[in-house]
Every structure is written in C-alpha cells, then in structure tokens.
C-alpha cells in the first residue's frame, strides 16, 4: 500500500467550484507541497486555480496514476471505478451514501468492480489520507507537521479533530488515514502496513468496531510486536455501541472482548483524545520503561500529586539506595528532601537539577525519572530545561513544566531536544505508566 502514502501521481475527481470537497482537497495537495503529478478530473472540463496554480481540468482520466481521490455522488462511483480501474492502483472514496445509510448493494457493487480491476479502495464515506513525509495531503483536513505518528481513524470527523489537536500539542505525523466504511481496506490492513513503515514510530488507532475480528487480532499482534500501538475505542457502552453501528455500518461488538484483546497483545488503550496524544508523545521519546520511578521537583505540592497518581496507577515510588541518598546530602542544601520525591525547593538552579538527575539515574532501583519544575520568576525556565538536556542519563525522563508564559521558553527548548512536556504532574505520571506497560508486555514471549 505504499503508493497510497508515497504516491508519485494523483487524480482528483469531483466539482472544482470553490468550497466543494474536491476543490478543497486539490488545494490541500497543492498547498502542501506535493511534488508529483496532479490531475483534476470532471466531465465538464475547464480550468481551476488553487494556491496560485492554474490547472487544466481533464474531462476523463487518460493516463496512469497511483491514487484516485473521488468526491462525486455515490451512485456514480461504481461506474467511475469501472472506467478508470485499469489506470489507477488505489482509490480513496470520499463520497458518502453507501452502507452507512443503508445502500449496502451500492457498496458491494463498488467493491466488486474495484476487485475486478485490481484496485484497492479506502472508504467509502471517509475523509481521505495523508502521506506526510511525501508532502501528500489527500484530504480536506488540516495539514500537519512531519513526525512519527501514524493516525488510523474510522471516523473522519474524529480524525480531523485529532489532527488539529495534534498540531496544538506539537505532535508530528507520518501519516493519516480515515477509512470510513472499510468496505475494502480496513484498520487491520493499515496496522500491518504502518508496522513496517520506516517513518512511523508510533501507531494510533481510533475504532468503533471491526468487521473481521480474527484479521484484526492477527494485525494487532503483528503491529504491537513491532511498534507501540495506542487505541481509543469508542462504543463501549450499550448506547455507544448502537451509535457506532449506525455511524459506519460496522458491528461494535462486546467491549470486554476488545479490552481483553488489547491487553493480550500489548496495545496501549486510552480513554480520551488528550490521553491519545500524551501516549503518542511518550512513545515518540521512548520505547519502554519500568515501574520504579523517581520524582524530582522544586515544589512540594506537585510532587505529592505525582506520588498519589503514581500509586493509584500501580507504579512504584523507587526506594533510593543509601549511596544515592548520601550523594544527594553531600551537595543539596539541608532544607531539601532527599527522599523520593526529591524536593530541590524553589530556588533550585541548573546545577542542582542536573546533578540530582545524574545521581538518581545511576541508582539501580530507579527505572524512570519524572522532572517537575515550577520556576520562580528569578530563575528562567530555560535554565532548568538546559539542565535536563545536559544531564547524562540513559533512562527515560518525563517532564512537567508548569505553567503558562513562565515556562513556554523552557518547553520550547526541551522540544527542540526531543523532550515533550506534559502539562500536569498527573499526565506526566500517566506517561510513565504507559512506558511501564510496554516493558512488561515486551518481556513476555507472546509472539511465537
């Protein structure tokens, strides 16, 4: 399926009047910097101008292309696939009006014609796809920055909201696919594909239900053996399950079965969008971690909150060795607490943070570190950020800088050096929990 996400050529079918879906998708492709061949197609012909680029609208597709993006009335889609099937490798069918509204036969006709021609289909009733590292934005959703997260979404609207939120959270994406009714290619196909994609570090999956449970289990097992997979499952309640079925025409099934599957195959299940991106940030930085955490803070309150959350989530507040405690006592002011959490007090500077991080990192009882900073106005947050960056530590470090304008420069500096900030102590602890789960499962011989 590489041609979907790294295409050399694309044709867009639909209306190219301003505001029409095909027009918006065409604009996204051009504005996104796609360097391949782009062909707009509409039986009326003419010209279209998008992003200061004027293109001829072909009346029909005369040349071979990798991907066809189709945004025309549903009843015309099967005949179009029949017409262009010999010239395209894959079709992204944006058009709605198929099984999700009861037109099951029309959807069957679409897939039969596609399979007769050897065309792979994404959709119908979807929001399109991104191949971010190919500068290919074949969707009407907001464009995103390059990175390592592949987002697979059954819902187009959720996918669009998630992309926008990802931009706000500073997430970089490798790809996005909204697969809609999953009439041909499903979440299982994309799980397997992104598991082997060189630019994808983490896979995030939003699902309401799956049509082929066995295929999904095999794909999830394969993907989680390769990379972290984060899952947000909708339709858990009875009412939600019914809503999911009416939304995409798929069976939501028993949530308990899904939950057991996620646990068995090391998928990281999250409860809401905020958690999805926190988990994505976590696994962008590290592959795994342990349950024993050390907390370094310059403010007692956030340290207590982090400790409470850690114990609630089943993490261990690491018992520091006597050697570690003695090393801390040698250089820290007497007002500081050398027990875990280690409280460096409000005037903690670069040297105090850096040295404490390095000492705790050497402790064999510590698997991961949480660094909390609530800087006073007389110590720039960049100073503490630099201490974290410069500290010699090979163990996972998760950071919580609070809050607002006071820490924005420090957070920016951390981000440049690969450290993602978590806005609250609780969210940072949850990140460490996900890392610990990944390590626990990866140590199990479950993939033979």
UniProtKB/TrEMBL annotation:
InterPro entries: Acyl-CoA_Synth/Transferase (IPR051538), CoA-bd (IPR003781), Ligase_CoA_dom (IPR043938), NAD(P)-bd_dom_sf (IPR036291), Succ_CoA_lig_flav_dom (IPR032875), Succinyl-CoA_synth-like (IPR016102). GO terms for molecular function: acetate-CoA ligase (ADP-forming) activity; ATP binding. Keywords: ATP-binding, Ligase, Nucleotide-binding. It catalyses: acetate + ATP + CoA = acetyl-CoA + ADP + phosphate. Residues 4-98 form the CoA-binding domain. Its EC number is 6.2.1.13. SMART domains: CoA_binding (SM00881). It comes from the Archaea. Pfam families: CoA_binding_2, Ligase_CoA_2, Succ_CoA_lig. PANTHER family: ACETATE--COA LIGASE [ADP-FORMING] (PTHR43334). This is acetate--CoA ligase (ADP-forming).
């Amino acid at each position: 399926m590489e041609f979907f996400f790294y295409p050399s050529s694309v044709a867009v079918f639909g209306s190219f009047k301003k505001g029409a879906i095909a027009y918006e998708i065409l604009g996204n492709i051009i504005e996104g910097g796609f360097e391949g061949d782009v062909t707009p197609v509409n039986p009326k012909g003419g010209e279209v101008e998008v992003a200061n680029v004027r293109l001829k609208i072909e009346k029909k597709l005369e040349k071979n292309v990798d991907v066809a993006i189709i945004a025309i009335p549903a009843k015309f889609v099967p005949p179009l696939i029949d017409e262009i099937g010999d010239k395209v490798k894959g079709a992204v069918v944006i058009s709605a009006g198929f099984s999700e509204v009861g037109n099951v036969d029309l959807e069957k006709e679409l897939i039969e014609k596609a399979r007769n021609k050897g065309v792979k289909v994404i959709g119908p009733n979807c929001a399109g796809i991104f191949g971010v590292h190919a500068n290919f934005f074949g969707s009407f959703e907001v464009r995103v920055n390059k990175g390592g997260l592949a987002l697979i979404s059954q819902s187009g609207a959720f996918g669009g909201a998630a992309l926008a939120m990802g931009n706000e959270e500073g997430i970089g994406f490798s790809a996005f696919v909204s697969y809609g009714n999953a009439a041909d290619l499903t979440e299982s196909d994309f799980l397997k594909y992104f598991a082997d994609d060189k630019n994808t570090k983490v896979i995030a999956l939003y699902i309401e239900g799956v049509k082929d449970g066995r295929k999904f289990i095999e794909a999830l097992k394969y993907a989680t053996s390769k990379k972290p997979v984060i899952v947000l499952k909708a339709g858990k309640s009875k009412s939600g399950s019914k809503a999911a079925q009416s939304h995409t025409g798929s069976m939501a099934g028993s949530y308990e079965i899904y939950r057991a599957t996620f646990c068995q195959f090391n998928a990281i299940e999250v409860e809401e969008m905020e958690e999805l991106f926190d988990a994505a940030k976590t696994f962008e930085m590290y592959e795994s971690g342990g349950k024993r955490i050390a907390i370094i803070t310059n403010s007692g309150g956030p340290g207590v909150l982090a400790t409470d959350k850690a114990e609630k989530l089943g993490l261990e507040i690491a018992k520091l060795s006597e050697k570690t405690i003695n090393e801390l006592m040698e250089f820290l002011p007497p007002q500081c607490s050398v027990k875990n959490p280690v409280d460096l007090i409000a005037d903690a500077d670069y040297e105090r943070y850096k040295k404490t991080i390095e000492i705790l990192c050497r402790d064999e009882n510590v698997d991961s570190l949480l660094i909390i900073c609530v800087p006073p106005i007389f110590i720039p947050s960049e100073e503490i950020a630099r201490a974290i960056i410069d500290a010699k530590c090979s163990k996972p470090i998760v950071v919580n800088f609070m809050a607002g304008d006071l820490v924005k420069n420090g957070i920016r500096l951390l981000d440049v050096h690969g450290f993602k900030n978590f806005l609250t102590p609780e969210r940072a602890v949850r990140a460490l929990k996900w890392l610990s789960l990944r390590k626990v499962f990866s140590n199990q011989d479950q993939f033979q």
